Description:
Strand content: 5-15%
Structural class: alpha/beta
CATH superfamily of the largest domain: P-loop containing nucleotide triphosphate hydrolases
Oligomer: single chain
Order of helices and strands: HEHEHEEHEHEEEHHEHEHHEHHHHH
Helix content: 40-55%
Strand order of the largest sheet: 2-5-8-1-9
Shape: globular
Low-confidence stretches: 244-256, 264-277, 329-335
CATH topology of the largest domain: Rossmann fold
Amino acid sequence: xxxxxxxxxxxxxxxxxxxxxxxxxxxxxxxxxxxxxxxxxxxxxxxxxxxxxxxxxxxxxxxxxxxxxxxxxxxxxxxxxxxxxxxxxxxxxxxxxxxxxxxxxxxxxxxxxxxxxxxxxxxxxxxxxxxxxxxxxxxxxxxxxxxxxxxxxxxxxxxxxxxxxxxxxxxxxxxxxxxxxxxxxxxxxxxxxxxxxxxxxxxxxxxxxxxxxxxxxxxxxxxxxxxxxxxxxxxxxxxxxxxxxxxxxxxxxxxxxxxxxxxxxxxxxxxxxxxxxxxxxxxxxxxxxxxxxxxxxxxxxxxxxxxxxxxxxxxxxxxxxxxxxxxxxxxxxxx
Length: 335
């Protein structure tokens, strides 16, 4: 983390694009905000966009704006995020979830500092610094032809990789103290002490949700505490009883992939087209389909939960479900 801080301070004074890499919950947005605050652009806006939360059409309008009548529902002109971030910084989270078509337009903004609003022909200029983040290895996405290589190199001028919490367990006591102070003040509480057994449990846990998950558990403990000590019983069972967690789910998923691959091979690739030339691709598709099916079943069909366990964002999972014909009702809140 000291190296992360060093690079953050060093790059902040420049106009270079920054690519922040790390698992969900490690604090990528916090680092992006720090780069902005330490830069000469700190008097300008810091605009956040979660690229994984919107469909392609909505994301294009969100980023570049649109004019009235550009599409159904466009009843007025709208300023896009790039325009709003002029002279400041725009943070593109989950950049890996953007489509190849949208990536072309993003590449133009990075290279030419200009774009057109949806439905308009007038060119708009934006002097916004771009910071992007991804919880996936973008070079792997490039190899799989899901991410443009030219955009990757434009974004990856200065990479900052944030380690997961389980790789820096020595930071947990300090983080617990910080969150205790924060939520004590926020909730008018005084949970000032940490039971040694509680701290041991927190340091032994694998933290699939990283710092964000730790923050959530400390907030809950502060709210639920009856005294001034954070005791073991205030922590969730997944922490205190060593139940399987989502980070172990990464290992589990890898084991599942291995066993499923062996199963496909054992079956003699019965379901694979014998005339196929892309045999490897078909095997991968069959394994991926079966793995998604199993994880969805294990998560009771809740796509948000399944996506977290698979290590992909919800939009990507939804596309995979449609690709493999696994469509199911998904209209329940939080699914």
